[in-house]
Amino acid sequence: MENATLTVLETPLSNTSVSNEFWTHCLGQWLPPNHILFQIANAFLFLSYLAPVGIYGLLYLRTCLMIGSMFFALWGWIVLCALDTFIWNAVFTLINLIHVVILLYMLRPVKLSKELEEVYQDLFKPLQVSRHQFRKAISCMREIKCLKPREPYCVENVTKVDRLSLVLTGRQNGHALHIVDSKQFLDSPEWFGVCTNDAYQVSITALEACRVLIWHRDKLKLSICDDVFLQAVFDNILGKDVVKKLLLVSESSCNGVGFYVCDDVVAETTKLLSKNKQGQTGLGVLLTRQVKNRGDTNVWNLAKKAQSEQDPETSV
């Protein structure tokens, strides 16, 4: 008897029948809803997807992920009794907990002393510098130095320019050039293009009891070099300080000698003193001292020009 071979050919299902099967194969076979721990875990995952942009949004995201993973771990331990589910979610919880702790440490409140708080409020906060950024700058502080009346801060051609100093209280006299009041810098011109091995071109002496905030200049520059915004803020503050020192000319300048600056914008205690024996205004003396012995030939002399050299068409 010959063996008969039976071939069964399957008829391919149409796309319509496949689609119907996809949507209907679970009808009447759905499992009951999962445990409440599972629902809570997924609710926190959902909330994590709504995290906003920024460091606070990142803290919110990590917190939601940590709580969601924690509930998944409890669900795997209590309900499923699945060790792998519990271990994986416990690890996820620990990772996100570490991130939350680090973010909270970064966002902790920055407390400043009374003097530093005044510096921040007067100089840095108006420029939108955060307290954390200001703390970064303060970390480069060398000391707060107390000076007695007539005590020198620096000596001309002797003291090295390795610091940046801000007067907190009191007044300093810049060797018959000008008086520096509180919340003003003593060595703002040296911030721009002056080497640490250079010496001061002026002598600065305390007129009264002073407190001076002193930064390590090179350490401060290195610390803020990776923060473009903070670097621009220091350049702005110190640049304005230099301009004020140059514009606050003597009373003789206001009467027609050198550059004219109105009395209503000149503080009485910060005017540059009168011209020296060579006939230069305080402005000219300041610039001369800043470029002394540097060999710079392309320097503008802002002192009073001789009357015969003035251009009548451009003179003001």
Automatic annotation (TrEMBL):
Keywords: Membrane, Transmembrane, Transmembrane helix. Residues 33-251 form the POPDC1-3 domain. The chain crosses the membrane at residues 36-56, 63-80, 86-107. One of its GO terms (biological process) is striated muscle cell differentiation. It is found in: Membrane. It holds the Pfam family POPDC1-3. PANTHER family: BVES, POPEYE DOMAIN CONTAINING PROTEIN. This is POPDC1-3 domain-containing protein.
